[in-house]
Write a structure and sequence with these properties.
This protein has helices at about 45-50, 75-80, 95-110, 115-120, 125-135, 150-165, 180-200, 210-215, 235-240, 240-260, and strands spanning about 5-15, 15-30, 30-35, 60-65, 65, 80-85, 170-175, 200-205, 220-225, 225-230. α3 crosses α5 (about 125-135). A hairpin with a 2-residue loop joins β1 (about 5-15) and β2 (about 15-30). The radius of gyration is 18 Å and the shape is globular. With about 260 residues, it is of the alpha/beta class. It has two domains: about 1-80 and about 170-260, P-loop containing nucleotide triphosphate hydrolases (Rossmann fold, 3-Layer(aba) Sandwich); about 85-165, Rossmann fold. The strands form two sheets. It has a six-stranded mixed β-sheet, sandwiched between helices. Adenosine-5'-diphosphate binds near residues 17, 37, 39 and 43.
């Protein structure tokens, strides 16, 4: 199996704060990787370096054998890496279908900024892709609802469906279930993960809930204080004494807080 992402010894400092250090990770194509760690452990910093929202202070990142270290995020998106943020990035006053068509129109436009801005959202390619995406993410019945009126879980699905427009090969999800109740989380992740499997997309997802990670990840990276302290299949990571001491206690506390 070939490797889609090769991260070599990256580091990120913000003044005196070392947000990430000595991180080396090789991800084979089609793997689903869960990322765990307490608040402030460096998970988002890691994601941001891969997507070009932050430039590593040192080290290198290769995607499909191309060096993408320090490239601007718009170039990285064009190469085939997409992401979602912790808070859904949808246009609140537009309908689900309009949001999806805009995402498809932008993603399908490989040309100039002007072309991207003025490309009609009813261009045939965008319409077909938008309809297929709403079906795949099981939100077609909300197509005419304004995004602002959607239940939180549906808004998350729309956000991720939009991130998948343009057929990225690698997708990074930063806490896709944040703000979702325990009862809804599994259902949401089932829909997301089966959609991404259908599209054969390699996934890195940040998640606080260990049960979700255990259920959906092939492999888990455990972050602590800016570095990866365990990298193995979920069972092995969750049983790792270092992870239990340094992360599991704080994870439970965090999950408890989020549900309070
Ligand atoms: N833009 C920034 N400026 C300064 N410090 C930052 C910045 N972004 C993150 N940090 C710090 O880097 C560390 C890791 O943060 P982050 O990657 O957001 O953690 P996580 O996503 O695991 O909660 C934290 O100590 C955080 O305060
Ligand atoms: Mg974060």
């Amino acid at each position: 199996m070939s490797d889609i992402l090769v991260v070599r010894d990256i580091e990120k400092t913000f003044g005196a704060v070392v947000a990430a250090r000595d991180i080396s990770v090789v991800v084979p194509v089609h793997q689903t990787v869960g990322i765990i760690g307490a608040n402030g452990a460096g998970k988002t910093t890691f994601v941001n370096m891969i997507t070009g929202h932050l430039t590593p202070s040192k080290g290198s990142i290769h995607f499909e054998n191309k060096d993408i270290t320090g490239l601007p995020s718009r170039d990285i998106v064009r190469l085939g890496i997409s992401r979602s943020f912790q808070v859904a990035q949808v246009f609140p006053t537009m309908t689900v279908l309009e949001n999806m068509r805009i995402a498809s129109a932008i993603a399908n436009s490989r040309d100039s900024i002007l072309d991207r801005l003025f490309r009609p959202i009813d261009a045939p390619g965008a319409v077909v892709e938008a309809d297929a995406a709403l079906d795949l993410f099981q939100i077609a019945r909300y197509r005419h609802a304004k995004a602002v009126t959607l239940p939180q879980g549906v808004r998350k699905l729309l956000d991720i469906a939009m991130a998948v427009a343009g057929s990225p090969r690698l997708l990074l999800l930063d806490e896709p279930t944040s703000g979702i109740s325990i009862e809804e989380k599994f259902g949401l992740m089932e829909v997301v993960m089966s959609a991404l499997k259908t599209r054969r997309i390699t996934v890195l997802f940040v998640e606080h809930d260990m049960e979700i990670v255990g259920r959906f990840a092939d492999r888990v990276l455990a972050f602590y204080d800016g570095t990866v302290i365990a990298d193995a299949p979920p069972k092995a990571v969750l049983a790792d004494p270092k992870v239990q001491t340094l992360i599991s206690g704080t994870q439970r506390a965090h999950v408890g807080q989020a549900d309070a």
